[in-house]
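Me: I'm a chemist; would you kindly supply a protein sequence with its C-alpha cells?

Assistant:
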Amino acid sequence: IGHPRGSFRILVTGGTGLVGRAIQKVVADGEGRPDEEWLFVSSKDADLTSAAETKALFEKHKPTHVVHLAAMVGGLFKNIRCNLDFWRRNVHINDNVLHSAYECGVQKVVSCLSTCIFPDKTTYPIDETMIHNGPPHSSNFGYSYAKRMIDVQNRGYFEQHGCRFTAVIPTNIFGPHDNFNIEDGHVLPGLIHKVYLAKQSGSALTVWGTGKPRRQFIYSLDLARLFLWVLREYEEVEPIILSVGEEDEVSIKEAADAIVEAMDFKGELIFDTTKADGQFKKTASNAKLRRYLPGFQFTPFKQAVQETCAWFSANYGSARK
C-alpha cells in the first residue's frame, strides 16, 4: 500500500488519555524504533462516534498499524447511571475504528479491552478463554458488552478478511495523566485526589465501601511497554490479559494505605460502608503473558503509587479536572 516494508505508521486513538500518554512517554524515552512513526490523536482530531470523521482521519494519516484506546469511560457510579450511553457510544467508536482500519488496509490493530468484561459469576482466576461465558456485572453491562464486541468483531475480520486485529485486556490501570475526578474517576486516582484534599484541609479521609474488594493494579508505564511488545510481536487474534500476577492483587484498603504512606497523610481513615463496593474481585491470570514474556519486570506497586502521587501533586492544577 505504498509503504516500504518495515516502515510503520502507528495511529493511536485516545492518544491523550492515561494509556496514550504512557505510550508517548515510553516511545520518547527510547523504546520507539527508528522505522516507527507514532501519531497520537484525541477527540479534538476526530469524533470517532462519526463514521465519516473516522474514515477521514484514517485517509489523512494512512496508518499501517493502529493502537485503539479511545472509549467513553468512567468509574462505578457513572456507569450505573449511564449504561445505555456507554453501550452506544463505545459500539459506534469501535465499529468505526475497526472498519476504517479494514478499509484502509491497516496491517494490525491492537484494541484495549477491560477486565470488567469478564463474567460476573465465574471461577477464579479468569483467563482469556472465559470472556464470553456469562453476563458481566450488572453495574456496567453497557460498557462491558461494547468492549466484548471488539473481540467478536476481531474474529469476524480475521475469518472473513484475514485481518490481524487483536486486543489486550489490562487489569486496573493507574498512573500519571489519569482521570483524578473524585465522582467519575476510577478507585485509585480518586483516592489519590481524596488524600490530597484531606491533607490540605486537615480532615479525615473517607473511603467509599468496606475497603475489602481486591484488585490487580497495573502501572500505565508497564502497560505501555507491554503494548509495544503486543504491537510488534504478538500474532494471535485471541486477546491477551496484561496484568501483574494473582499474588500481586491488593485490597482497596491496602491501596489506600499505600497512598496514605506515599503522600505522608497523618489523619484518620474512615470506611463509608453505606457506599457500594462493586465487584469483590476480578482476579485475572497472567499465565499466557508469562508464557510469552517470563522475564518481564513490573514496577513494584508502592513505587508506582509514589510516582503517581508525586506526578499528581506536581500537576495538581491540571490533574484534578
